[in-house]
Design a protein that fits this description.
alpha/beta, Leucine Aminopeptidase, subunit E, domain 1, 2 domains, 13 helices, 11% strand, elongated
């Protein structure tokens, strides 16, 4: 299905499987491990864990979830961070791959992960995030499952790298420019109520606006009565959002699964889009599809316009998406990481 990043306590998440970064010994560890045992029922879960026995870093195994809002707890043994020279990254990746494979074997349709090994084990959060997104997105290319990456609080979610730093600089500089523009507009307004000079009027039709005596010019070519009628305009309506979307997909030689997986949209939602010629998307869905199709800015604006949507220079969400499109970054998971950091809605799911 799709990858979601959510801010919550993992013991409160409803999913078929909940992943726990577990203690390798048959014992309750601190942090998330202890919280899961407490919420599930400490004694009964410990008894089930005892039946599995000791585990090694990278191993995964499942027990019932008991009192949690889940069917299964998948216990994954993460590595203690020792500087990165002891295979820690591969061990964390193995935990994600093993947990996803086990969830598939158990028939799970949804699974919730913490940012594994970043608590007591001390794994760097930015590296853990990259590994999580890489392994989960790779799994979703060939499999259908709702995957949730659960982050306890904003402070525990770190994003590093060139994209985030560039967007941060871009937003901060843009907001400073906006501040100066607003200050400039506070200057005393000129009296615009005087006569309009004849030679200043272009040779086009114009209409007068009573506000402040301003004159607004309509530079569009005149239409005769028949051409400007409502019936005539309706007869020449262009493609709908849905029609244009699937024209773009065909034009780019892509398949439906390629598009909805790259857009981080589940198959059922995409089927709904395909079956409804008058489908009206949310902005985040429309932009997710634009990212999946790797549309340039003009193409994106055109696609949004067919759904009655637009990008605004005064909305932070829109600024982030515009920056990514203008700089050719179409990695939806990387974009969503930045959106999450800025408390913005995520694309797709």
């Amino acid at each position: 299905m799709a990858l979601q990043i959510i801010r919550n306590d993992i013991i409160n998440v409803e999913a078929d499987a909940i992943v726990n970064t577990a203690n390798p010994a048959v014992a309750v560890g601190p942090g998330v491990d202890e919280a899961i045992y407490t919420a599930a029922g400490r004694d009964i879960l410990l008894e089930a864990r005892r039946a599995i026995g000791p585990m090694k870093p990278g191993d995964v195994a499942a027990t019932p979830a008991f009192d949690l809002r889940a069917k299964h707890i998948i216990h994954a043994i993460g590595p203690a961070w020792r500087g990165g020279g002891y295979g820690e990254r591969e061990t964390v990746a193995k935990c994600y791959r093993g947990a996803l494979a086990l969830a598939l074997e158990l028939g799970c349709e949804s699974i919730a992960f913490p940012l594994m090994a970043t608590g007591t084990y001390g794994f760097p959060k930015d590296e853990a995030l990259k590994i999580a997104v890489r392994e989960i997105s790779g799994f979703l290319i060939d499999n259908e499952m709702e995957v949730m990456l659960v982050v306890y609080d904003k402070e525990s979610f770190e994003v590093s790298g060139k994209l985030f730093s560039d967007i941060k600089t871009f937003i901060e500089e843009d907001e400073v420019r906006d501040l100066f523009r607003r200050k400039e507009t506070r200057a005393p307004a000129e009296d615009l109520s005087g006569p309009v000079l004849e030679d200043a009027v272009p040779e086009t039709a114009y209409t007068e606006c009573e506000m402040s005596g301003q004159v607004l010019y309509d530079t569009a070519p005149k239409m005769n009565a028949a051409e400007s009628s409502l019936e005539e305009r309706l007869r020449h309506m262009d493609r709908t959002f849905q029609e244009h979307l699937f024209w773009l997909i065909d034009h780019r030689g892509m398949t439906d699964p390629e598009v909805y997986k790259k857009a981080n949209i589940d198959r059922k939602h995409f089927s709904k889009i395909r079956s409804d010629i008058n489908y009206s998307p949310s902005k985040k869905t429309a932009l997710a599809l634009a990212i999946a199709l790797e549309l340039n800015m003009d193409e994106t604006i055109d696609l949004l316009g067919r759904a009655g949507l637009a990008l605004s220079p005064s909305i932070r969400f829109d600024k982030i998406i515009s920056y990514c499109i203008e700089h050719g970054n179409y990695d939806i998971y990387e974009i969503n990481n930045v959106l999450f950091k800025y408390d913005q809605p995520l694309l797709g799911a």
